[in-house]
Amino acid sequence: MKKMTIKVNGIELFYEKTGQGSPVILLHGNGENHEIFDVLIEKLSANYTLYAIDSRGHGKSEKVRTINYEDMAEDIAAFIGGLNLQKPSLYGFSDGGIAGLLIAIKYPDLLSKLAISGANINPKGFKRFFLAAMSAEYFFTRNENIKMMITQPDIKEEQLAKIVTPTLVLAGSKDMIRESHTKTIAENIPGSVLKILQGETHSSYVIHSDKLRAIIETFLGR
Questions:
Q1: Looking at residue 222, what is its pLDDT?
Q2: Virtual torsion, Cα 106, 107, 112, 118, nearest 10 deg
Q3: What are phi and psi of 110, to 5 degrees?
Q4: Does residue 186 contact residue 119 with C-beta atoms inside 8 Å?
Q5: Which residues contact 10 (CB under 8 A, 6 or more apart)?
Q6: Do the beta carbons of residue 111 and residue 103 sit within 8 Å?
Q7: Spatial separation of the C-alpha atoms in residues 222 and 213, rounded to whole Å
């Protein structure tokens, strides 16, 4: 495992590089860092070169005053270019999945495959209780990460329809994202595969878990 930094779009991103094989980028969710993937990385590193990145304003990456999904997506595009990665695959959880969608929309030739879980294309994708709770939290904390979640993204169905990257769409059956919203995402990405994981919450199969291993290996191929 190598702990490294790279300058992209004027900020420094921290990442860990582990394993050998075709390149796979791992993107965490809001308020987290790359360490949520520790168990998954251990399982996947025999077959893939994994790049687990701390998003801007998260973990050991450079802090920012304001944050938005477009900048996060541009950071990853610049990361891929900066390291000269050839057609990496990308798995993004929650906010990382949103960034993955934006990359696939804007840069159709950049990724070989895209897997997302617990992502949404607008704040209405959250179940009402969770959106209300996050709105209340923002009212009291003025946390920029929370503000981003309750005001962004704004991805249109016609933008999803332009995605040509083979895409896997995942969510838990007990996710904070409405199942109908997840299905809308999958239905609008041509040829995408949808998996609703029974009994799983938004993060139960992702954080410090190896439950994604078989799913990702099947989707990516060894």
A1: 62
A2: -30
A3: -80, -40
A4: no
A5: none
A6: yes
A7: 12
Residue 192 sits at the vertex; the CA angle it makes with 120 and 151, to the nearest 5 degrees, is 10
Query: What pLDDT score does 58 carry?
Result: 98
| Confidence at residue 206, expressed as pLDDT on a 0 to 100 scale | 98
Q: Is the peptide bond before 153 cis (omega within 30 degrees of 0)?
A: yes
Q: Cα(90)–Cα(122) distance, rounded to whole angstroms?
A: 21
Closest-CA residue to 95 (of 188, 143, 27, 155): 27
According to CATH, the topology of domain 2-220 is: Rossmann fold (3.40.50)
Separation between Cα atoms, residue 69 and residue 74, nearest integer Å? 9
Give me the residues of the chain with pLDDT under 50, please. none
Tell me the C-alpha to C-alpha distance, in Å, between residue 120 and each of 76, 89, 137, 190: 19, 20, 19, 17
How much is the pLDDT for 5? 97
* Cβ atoms of residues 103 and 157 within 8 Å: no
| DSSP per-residue codes, 164-184 | -S-EEEEEEEE-SB-HHHHHH
Q: What is the pTM of this model?
A: 0.97
- Largest Cα–Cα separation, the chain: 47
